[in-house]
Amino acid sequence: MTQNVSGHEDFTWDSAEHLARLASCDTLWEHYLQTRVRFEAAGQVGTLWPVDSAVGGNRPPLGPLHVVTAVQPNSEPCSVDIMARMGVLDQELDDAGIRSIRAVGSSFDGTHSEDSRAVFGLDNAQARALGVWFGQVAVFAWSGPRWSLLGCATERRTDRGWRWDPSS
Predict the structure, then answer these.
(1) Does 76 score more than 70 pLDDT?
(2) pLDDT per position as a tens digit, 95-154
(3) Strands (DSSP E) found in 9-156
(4) What's residue 49's pLDDT?
(5) What long-range pairs does 17-23 form, CB within 8 A, spacing at least 24?
(6) Which residues are within 8 A (CB) of 45 and not within 5 positions of it... i.e. 6 or more apart?
(7) Which distant-in-sequence residues (6+ apart) come within 8 Å of 102 by Cβ?
(8) Of 168, 37, 163, 42, nearest to 103 (Cα)?
């Protein structure tokens, strides 16, 4: 029995021009800034909380990484489309030999969450390009003392400190 597997070309993705317009919206950007991310790796589970000051953690416990998703802006939560798009992201990361782990970004108040992947070994330009490929307004970067929000189709960037909340 042949399994029907979707590929990147089977979906419509937001254009770079549209993503750049969305990234220029201060209200939307503020929503992204109010995101915590829970990471689930073997032996290391916890939540990163951005902090407004530069004082916070200094050494990310998982090492430097970027957080990306294939969920489109304004998509319906828990839809089959989202699961299929995330499957395409997982397959492309695997095909490229890019190590990733599950991450879930959610609003501080918990009213919105989004399945994502923490990816390792990319620089900011590569992570931004991956974000554009998957129709993303922005990706997160975690390196040293900085938790950064990076516009994918623009140079917009916000750097903050971070706090790690380990949990079992």
Answers:
(1) no
(2) 999 999 999 999 999 888 999 999 999 999 999 999 999 999 999 999 999 999 999 999
(3) 35-41, 44-51, 65-68, 100-107, 113-119, 138-143, 146-151
(4) 95
(5) 17/153, 19/131, 19/132, 19/135, 19/136, 19/137, 19/151, 19/152, 19/153, 19/154, 20/151, 20/153, 20/154, 22/73, 22/137, 23/137, 23/138, 23/151, 23/152, 23/153, 23/154, 23/156
(6) 38, 39, 166, 167, 168
(7) 39, 40, 41, 115, 116, 117, 118
(8) 37
Residue recorded with tokens 């304004």: 74
Query: Helix H segments across the chain?
Result: 16-23, 26-33, 80-95, 124-133
Per-residue model confidence as pLDDT tens digits over 14-65: 999 999 999 999 999 999 999 999 998 877 899 999 998 766 788 999 999 9
d(CA 141, CA 152): 12
Alpha carbon distance 147, 51 (integer Å): 9
Per-residue tokens: 102: 């599950």
